Amino acid sequence: PLTIYRKDYTPPGFWVETVEMGFDLDPEATHVATRMTLKRNPASQNKSLLLYGEALRLVQLRMNGKALTKRAYTLGPGTLEINNPPDHVTLEIETVTHPNLNTSLMGLYVSDGNFFTQCEAEGFRKITYFPDRPDVMAKYKVMLRADKEKYPVLLSNGNLIEEGDLGDGRHYAVWEDPFKKPSYLFALVAGKLVCQEEKYTLHSGREVLLQVWVEEGNLDKTQHAMDSLKRSIRWDEERFGLELDLDRFMIVAVGDFNMGAMENKGLNIFNTKYVLANPRIATDTDYANIESVVGHEYFHNWTGNRVTCRDWFQLSLKEGLTVFRDQEFSADMIGTDSARAVKRIEDVRVLRQAQFPEDAGPMAHPVRPDSYVEINNFYTVTVYEKGAEVVRMYQTLFGRDGFRKGMDLYFQRHDGCAVECDDFRRAMADANGRDLSQFELWYCQSGTPHLKVDTHYDEVAKTYAITLTQSCPATPGQAQKQPYHIPVAVGLLDGSGRDLPLHLGGVEIDGPAPTTMVLELTQQRQSFEFRNVPVHPVPSILRGFSAPVVLEIDYSDAELAFLMAHDSDPFNRWEAGQRLAMRRLLALADAVQKDHALSDSELQETALGKAYHKILSDRMLDPAFCELALTLPSETVVAEQVDVVDPHAIHAVRQFMRRSLAAAMRVEWEVAYQANRTPGSYSPDAAAAGKRALKNLALSYLMELDEPQMHLLAQGQYDQANNMTDRIAALSALVNSSAAGRDEALARFYAEFEQEALVIDKWFALQAMARTTDVAKVRDLMAHTAFTLKNPNRARSLIFSFCNGNPAQFHAVDGSGYEFWADQVIALNAINPQVAARLARSLDRWRKYAPALQEKMQAALKRVAATKSLSKDVLEVVTKSLA
Ligand code: B3K
Ligand code: ZN
Asked: 104 with 122: CB under 8 angstroms?
């Protein structure tokens, strides 16, 4: 397959000025008539007019009023090229597509009888022939025509300017988008939908119409999305001075969707998972995710839509920035410092769980990739989450105000344009009067940098030196790395755990000395000397996770316990606990591999045992923080720490440690369970959610004891739960125990929620990740009447949950998990290449496993690679994995 390179970018031969489209919507065959005006781009070397098209039947092609003869254009695979057109062109194109056969969920498709579109990245070309690239921006006017009874609601981008009857049982609506946009932001929706709507007054006094569209029967689940939308609008006004530029803003929920949501101009289309919520069906996590995804898509209106990407290599320009914005939004919504820290810890957890492995594997790529085969494979945790960390570093370097200045300059320079990551960096640099040329390496080098810390205290001179050394491992195509510009936030703790005032050699500061300073590491190795340090301090390095790096520092167990108890930076408090736990997990895993018996007799005496005890008994601590601090690093995160992964040993020792912690702190867990109940009516606010999280963590530890008394506790919680968070936590605890009632609970749950697709997804996911669920059980579940591979949420809930969320079973020594994986990748490839390619990523890290497993993984990868009619999506992933 063809590789596309960033260095090959050329400007388009033609600009599109206006686009008028007429749709005759029919699931069998939809006719699309497009009229567009184009004009030659004098700056381009491209003389011909290149349009893209896929899976289309071309019915008509006219240029400047005349039908084009076959000789006037060339129809290639995926392209239509018009030879030597004049400088001004009006093209009229009629195409036919088959929405009901479109299982890829790109372009125009049908979900539960309604029409939806998904055009990013390159789906518009499945609707009509078009210069489908993000730097071609045009104004759109769209007429939708459809059967009135089957499709009473007709929506597209912008404003509704006309609607009416067509007589023959059909009706029409005309939508006009006042803003120029790239084709990937086009959308239409048609069908039987209802909406919750509200008028909302912007800061400027202008009134806008907000709507959340869902299928009938889901109107009792839209309030949270609507509230989240209003909070997003307000937040972007207050934090960034950015106002909604439309009179009407719509969110539509669809059950069949490849990802979370899509920021189409004025018509955001969402996976139902990120819209529908009420206490009966949604967990605290669902509520939080909805708020963050609604925010994310809304924030794209400025970072993505008003200012868009020149080409798809620049994807992180909008995604990294918008993830950063949604993270800040969520943090601001929960308000308190401690809650902000909880959000930060959760975001870093995602980074370590998913992005660090990606950056260390065969699909590693820079935040701004240099090449791709299929762009849809690059909507990755690197482009999104690492990209957000890169944006966050500007704010760490320049402060909130400096960051805001950079944002203002970015919009001042580039509003209405399609630009590059470099333009954003330049705006930040210019607004803050700084040279950020070295900072570009964060965009072009892949791999996670390592930061090594050495310290020296001079008792006599009262100086404390911190020496930072950076390195970055080789990644595909990048053997050597240059040193990065790394902001390292540090603090120093005295013997009682208080922050020392910081006096950095050579730096004069007005006013009181700070207790956290950002050191800027730009060399491969650099020393920073602090003066007037009265005692040998304990350093707190990389506070708030100020850069996306692996920190290597030699702490003693005692120092880690000290930091966990005292660090004023909550992130590093949590981090110290994770380091302690990791140390013990790795020691135990080593013991297992040497066939030593595991012993936990002295756990209470260890630094870890004492630190955990202290956290759990500290009634002043935020429960949400406690929950994070008392959760052991995941099996995936542990696996990344070892050279040769033995998933069974890792699972065994993590389980062993959970049981030990359960037994050692039994009373404390029971107290925490009782103390964090949230009686009364349900509210998803952060404080209540934090309590539930800690209570349910306590339950899960207590259930490790596997005693009848605890089974009853879980059963009771299940029966009395007035919300999904408590119900699913109890069910999960039961399913992972030997409780007699576990199968009955599963059956009852299914019967109660049979009509709620999103809850049935949870039911599948929970079983997929259960300790006793093996490959055979997953194959059984696939035979369940409620299972289908065609719905991405359902496929993810069972298959992805098993392959990515149940490592001990997935990596069965007989290789049956890998065979199952290959079967599903191949089956999905024929249905939905994007979803298949995601699943294909599950074996990314195969080279890290013990040889016996490696061999079986390689065989499975080879089987997939050898499959006939493999999509380029899957082909790219497995080819790179095997390379
Ligand atoms: N921009 C979309 C993602 C589109 C993915 C295309 N395969 C959602 C988002 O990031 O907001
Ligand atoms: Zn996005």
From this structure: no
Q: Is the CB of 323 under 6 A from ligand 1?
A: no
Pick among 1.10.390.10, 3.30.390.50, 3.40.710.10, 3.40.1190.10: CATH of 308-444: 1.10.390.10
Q: Is the CB of 376 under 6 A from ligand 1?
A: yes
Amino acid at the residue 738: S
Q: Whose CA is nearest to atom 1 of ligand 1?
A: 262
How crowded is residue 91: how many other Cβ atoms within 10 Å of its Cβ? 25
Helices 284-300, 724-735: inter-axial angle, 10-degree rounding: 120
Task: Note the ligand closest to the C-alpha atom of 259.
Answer: 1
CATH number of 13-192: 2.60.40.1730
Copy the structure tokens of residue 247: 């009179």
| Residue 237, φ and ψ in degrees, nearest 5 | -70, -45
Reported ipTM: 0.99
Q: Whose CA is nearest to atom 4 of ligand 1?
A: 120
* Amino acid in the structure at residue 468: L
* CA dist list (Å): 810 to 592, 770, 800, 806: 20, 11, 11, 6
pLDDT digits (tens, 9 = 90+) for 97-149: 999 999 999 999 999 999 999 999 999 999 999 999 999 999 999 999 999 99
Token pair belonging to 872? 């380029």
Which is the catalytic residue, given 92, 263, 297, 635? Answer: 297
Partners of 407 in beta bridges: none
> Is 876 known to be catalytic?
no
Query: Which of 259, 274, 871, 872 has most ligand 1 atoms within 8 Å of CB, for mutation?
Result: 259
> Model confidence over 654-696: pLDDT tens digits?
999 999 999 999 999 999 999 999 999 999 999 999 999 999 9
> Is any atom of ligand 1 closer than 6 Å to the C-beta of 120?
yes
Report the distance separating Cα 58 and Cα 726, nearest Å.
Answer: 54
Going from the C-alpha of 356 to that of each of 259, 364, 485, 541, 637, the distances in angstroms are 21, 9, 19, 19, 9
Is the Cβ–Cβ distance between 697 and 627 less than 8 Å?
Answer: yes
Confidence of residue 47 (pLDDT cuts 50, 70, 90): confident
pLDDT in tens, 105-114: 999 999 999 9
The full set of domain ranges for the chain reads: 13-192, 308-444, 450-547, 754-883
Q: Which amino acid is at 247?
A: D
Using the 8-state DSSP alphabet, how is residue 536 labeled? -
Q: Where are the beta strands (DSSP E) in 726-828?
A: none
861 lines ligand 1 (CB under 6 A): no
Residue nearest to atom 8 of ligand 1 (CA): 262
> How many other CB atoms sit within 10 Å of the CB of residue 465?
16
SS3 content of the chain, % helix, strand, coil (to 5): 45, 20, 35
Q: In this structure, which amino acid lies at residue 527?
A: S
Q: Are 421 and 433 in contact (CB under 8 A)?
A: no
Could you name the CATH architecture of 450-547?
A: Sandwich (2.60)
Residue whose token pair is 């981090």: 575
Q: Checking DSSP bridges between strand 88-97 and strand 57-63, what pairing results, if any?
A: antiparallel
* CATH topology identical between 450-547 and 754-883: no
Number of Cβ within 10 Å of residue 56's Cβ equals 21
Cα-based torsion angle of the residue sequence 797, 801, 803, 809 in order, rounded to the nearest 10 degrees: -120
Place of tokens 């082909």: 875
Q: Provide DSSP, 485-518.
A: -EEEEEEEE-TTSPBPPP-BTT---SSSPPSSEE
Q: What is the mean pLDDT of residues 540-569?
A: 97
Residue from 573, 579, 654, 582 nearest 614 by CA: 573
Percent of the chain with pLDDT over 90: 96
For ligand 1, atom 7, the nearest C-alpha belongs to 376
3-state class of 5 per DSSP? strand
Whether the pLDDT of residue 566 is over 80: the answer is: yes
Task: Write the CATH number of the domain with boundaries 754-883.
Answer: 1.25.50.10
Cα 416 to ligand 1 centroid, rounded to whole Å? 20
